[in-house]
Amino acid sequence: MRDHLANMLNAAKASFDEWARENARFCDLKRARFDLPGGYPYGERHMQSIYLLRYYAAYLAETCMLFEELSENGLQFPVITSFGCGSLLDAKAAQYVFDGVYRYRGYDIHDWHLKGVALGDGCEFWQGDLFLARDFPDTTNVFHFPRSVGDLGERMNELSGSLLASRLHSDIIYVTATCRNDIEYDFEKLVAFGNLLTGYSLDIWIRRSGLDIVNFFGRNGRNGIAQKYSWFNAVNDAEAVSFCSGMVEKCEQSSYINCPLPDCREYVSRWPTLTLGELSYVALKYKRD
Questions:
Q1: CA-CA distance, 185 to 91, in Å (whole number)?
Q2: What average pLDDT does this structure show over 33-47?
Q3: DSSP conformation class of 280
Q4: Distance in angstroms (rounded) separating the CA atoms of residues 129 and 109
Q5: What is the Cα–Cα distance from 231 to 16, expressed in whole angstroms?
Q6: Are 226 and 257 spatial neighbours (Cβ–Cβ below 8 Å)?
Q7: Full DSSP string of 156-218
Q8: What angle do CA 235, 272, 117 make, to 5 degrees?
Q9: Domain ranges within the chain, ordered by starting residue
Q10: How large is the greatest C-alpha to C-alpha distance in the chain, in angstroms?
Q11: Is the pLDDT of residue 217 over 80?
């Protein structure tokens, strides 16, 4: 996993450098955030690269923690349907946690230029508007929202027809999400999705965030993600921290009068996510009535 992570981060650096060679000023990176109208610009190649550099490692670890809890709860062969799958990092997490024994279909409107796993051998990608999907794989036993509930939550009920047409076989279905900011909102919307599963009832739920994750997974009182997964040190191998935090210095405009502006440090030179306390996830377990 350490080699995989280093390779992904180095590929993202190389991809970003291609953009940087033609764009000496990095003001555009101020759009690389989630709180602007329209959300994060996932469809742009250089924005995908900077997203991967800042978040791929942490969100991979976060998803591994979530899947480990599902494994401890008895899940042995996950068949995952992922909504808003992006770079397919959740497929990589499943491959890692379940020793390659999994099936996966990811849905996203954007086809990311870097992916965590190769397609084929039970790993599929469906590009397009999720709400136009006729149905989902009938063997699905995990519906996963990788930090995507905030983008999809208000339209959750529109998935009811696709779910009904899927004719799900599994007696146990997990509805899971890694969460961006508001875990209460995500929990509420996941329950709303679970209510669309005809003939199933909520059995148990797991919800972890912030200090709870630190206490649950921390080692020796420290809360760095590398205390949980040693492979996370690939972030250092790839020098991702210095690459991301030094963006302002790389920007040609930084030598101009009045530059850098105050928000450049916040949005252009944003550090990667490194600590357990910045992670959160929810899992709901449904049983057939």
A1: 25
A2: 94
A3: E
A4: 6
A5: 23
A6: no
A7: GGGGHHHHHHH----SEEEEEEE-SS-HHHHHHHHHHHHTTSTTEEEEEEEEEETHHHHHHH-
A8: 60
A9: 61-217+277-288
A10: 68
A11: no
Exposure letters 87-121 (e unless 16+ CB within 10 A, then b): bbbbbbbbbbbbeeebbbbbbbeeebebbbbeeee
Dihedral sign computed on CA atoms, order 216, 149, 106, 272: negative
Contact in structure between 172 and 285 (CB atoms under 8 Å): yes
| Average pLDDT value for residue range 262-281 | 90
- Burial code of 198-216, b = ≥16 C-beta within 10 A, e = fewer? eebeeeeebbbbeeebbee
52 token code pair: 């991967």
The backbone region for 260, taken as left when phi is positive above 0, alpha when psi lies in -120 to 50, beta otherwise, is beta
Where in 21-83 does DSSP place strands (E)?
79-83
Strands of the sheet with 200-209, listed across from one edge: 123-127, 103-108, 79-83, 142-146, 172-178, 280-288, 200-209
Separation between Cα atoms, residue 12 and residue 114, nearest integer Å: 8
Q: What is the pLDDT of residues 66-96, one digit of tens each?
A: 999 999 999 999 999 999 999 999 999 999 9
- Indicate the fold that domain 61-217+277-288 takes in CATH: Rossmann fold (3.40.50)
